[in-house]
Design goal:
The complex is a heterodimer of chains A (112) and B (111). By secondary structure, chain A is mainly β. Chain A contains no helices and twelve strands. In chain A, a hairpin with a 4-residue loop joins strand 8 and strand 9. In chain B, strands 2, 4, 5, 6, 9, 10 and 11 form a seven-stranded mixed beta sheet that branches. The chains are: A mainly beta (112), B mainly beta (111).
């Protein structure tokens, strides 16, 4: 069985603050993939990142960064200097060979 | 440009009706998925298919069935719609082990 936990259901920050969205996962697979998706108010799911279980290097893309720690089964997402356009629901997901399981999402509100 | 198309954006049905939700992808993807999205519950996997005519139950398959007769098309069937199946339904497709591409969703209301 696989499971994704996003303990933070809603977060509010003031613009320009940094914010970290937590994701903890469970799986028995030795090979798996982790994803983050963004769902803005328009509703369409936007892919942000894919990381495989053998690659624990952190990644930075502009204001976004991801911290993958296999030892704690976590794949956290940090937005630096948040902007109003970052307001959205963010989903973490886990993929075994076939099945893809999503967390319940974290709603981020960035206040101007 | 890659595309996952869901046949209806909004659908209203009556309790007990048989409902078909259609999804078509143009990317020659092996894998296709059906999720439902409800407030506070995130995306929950109903069924997925890893190849033509192959299907697997997801986490909440009760009350649903699926059909995949052609690689590009994956249909979700509500055999006898009930009010608790009112939800946003999202279809997705992917290559094996790769990221999912999502359709724009079908908001189904069962009255």
């Amino acid at each position: 069985a696989q499971k994704v936990t996003q303990a933070q259901t809603e977060i509010s920050v003031v613009e320009k603050e940094d914010v970290t969205l937590d994701c903890v996962y469970e799986t028995r697979d030795t090979t798996y993939y982790l994803f983050w998706y963004k769902q803005p108010p328009s509703g369409e799911l936007v892919f942000l990142i894919r990381r495989n279980s053998f690659d624990e290097q952190n990644e930075i893309s502009g204001r976004y960064s991801w911290n993958f720690q296999k030892s704690t089964s976590s794949f956290n997402f940090t937005i630096t200097a948040s902007q109003v356009v970052d307001s959205a629901v963010y989903f973490c997901a886990l993929r075994g060979y076939q099945k893809v399981t999503f967390g319940i999402g974290t709603k981020l509100q960035v206040i101007p | 440009d890659v595309k996952v198309t869901q046949s209806s954006r909004y659908l209203v049905k009556r309790t007990g009706e048989k409902v078909f939700l259609e999804c078509v992808q143009d990317m020659d993807h092996e894998n296709m998925f059906w999720y439902r999205q409800d407030p506070g519950l995130g995306l929950r996997l109903i069924y997925f298919s890893y190849d033509v005519k192959m299907k697997e139950k997801g986490d909440i398959p009760e009350g649903y069935s699926v059909s995949r007769e052609k690689k590009e098309r994956f249909s979700l069937i509500l055999e006898s719609a009930s009010t608790n199946q009112t939800s946003m339904y999202l279809c997705a497709s992917s290559l094996v082990l790769e990221k999912l591409f999502f359709g724009s969703g079908t908001q189904l209301s069962v009255l």
